[in-house]
């Protein structure tokens, strides 16, 4: 399991605090009493929005992670013995690391657990999607909806365990025995990994680094919870659809925390909207300097670099991951999505300024989007299937291509497409047989010349 989160390094007595990020802070001012009162009001609104787990829900997640790790360790041992691995090496078993919202400490009650299974080299990705899935995972009574996606950009196993959704990645490190302790930040673990393995491992590396690169993890978590809830309610929370997802928002919030290291969460939200309202995209967001090369003796990998890569240069809203090899986490953002994000950030800035002037309140910031009242014309894409497995497959296929449809709709210059990241699920009557499962995507259309 993931180790406890490490706090940012503290300054020694008489020494200035260590600078986090690539440039000095904009302000080191401490919060005033009004900022703390405003933060308390913000947290009350987040509680009302259902952003926090109960103690029982948290304990259930922890038990799921513990059982998954125990199962994976047994699989790793059994697989090693079946291949004639020496018993001493077999005892160096798999380990499970979490990342994403759970690792960052900002998961909602309905969020999935993102985790990575790290194994010694006798375990291969094919074994994970075959024997582990078939003989260990799918045979458990408390596991349901097992859905392996080995062909995905980052191969993933999706399932539920005791009704907790889990997205499980896999990475086989080139070690006969896993080091103890295993520090995933060491570049040597990238040796001889393919692109899928690097992306899988970097999910954990990025999450760990983000926590190390923020000056105060408590304020970071409160601000990140707030911005994620705001983005969900405003219909702009989806990396797949070309808006921004969890890691994008985490890096954006971490950057603002670095610039205002002592600010209260309520202040950070206002500064975030103000900073990104004025930001000159495509100037990238970086929370640590990027490295062109790994540590000496380690395998080099392609690094995001718009100076030498034409594809990188075409990115509209670069939000760069802190771990080597640095990648643009927001490469999916297109012109329609960037325009939408700018509009919502402008609204957020207006409302947070009113809140600071005591002319508004936090609940107004989190009001749901008026998407279905803003336009006269909409494109609706329905994903219909007779059973959950077919529905999941078609949903994933359509979702991954919808941002291309959004871009194509704007090819006539007189039309603007407005994506909406929230979907609507329902059961619809079929011509014959039981009702079908239906998920609907929506794109608003406007004609500025009218």
UniProtKB/TrEMBL annotation:
GO biological process: mRNA processing; RNA 3'-end processing
Binding site for Mg(2+) 2: 112, 114, 167
Cofactor note: Binds 2 magnesium ions. Also active with manganese.
Positions that bind ATP: 99-101, 108, 112-114, 167, 228, 237, 246-247
Keyword annotations: ATP-binding, Magnesium, Metal-binding, mRNA processing, Nucleotide-binding, Nucleus, Transferase
Gene Ontology cellular component terms for the protein in this record: nucleus
Cofactor(s) the record lists: Mn(2+); Mg(2+)
Domain Poly(A) polymerase RNA-binding: 370-423
Reaction equation(s) it catalyzes: RNA(n) + ATP = RNA(n)-3'-adenine ribonucleotide + diphosphate
Record localization: Nucleus
Family matches, as InterPro entries: NT_sf (IPR043519), NuclTrfase_I-like_C (IPR011068), PolA_pol_cen_dom (IPR007012), PolA_pol_NTPase (IPR048840), PolA_pol_RNA-bd_dom (IPR007010), PolyA_polymerase (IPR014492)
Stretches with biased composition (Low complexity): 1-13
Stretches for region Disordered: 1-33
EC code(s) of this entry: 2.7.7.19
Broad enzyme group: transferase
Job description of the protein: Polymerase that creates the 3'-poly(A) tail of mRNA's.
Membership in a protein family: Belongs to the poly(A) polymerase family.
Name used for this protein in its record: Poly(A) polymerase
Organism: Tribonema minus
